[in-house]
Amino acid sequence: MTATESLQARLRALLLERSVRRGDFVLASGRKSAFYIDARRTTMAGEGLAVVGALGVAALERRGWKPRAIGGLTLGADPVAYAIALAGKIDAFTVRKKPKEHGTGRRIEGCFERGYAVVIVEDVVTTGASALEAIGAVTAEGGRILGVLAVVDREEGGRPAIESAGYALEVLTSARELGLDAAGR
Question: How far separated are the first and last CA of the chain, in Å rounded?
Answer without folding.
Answer: 27
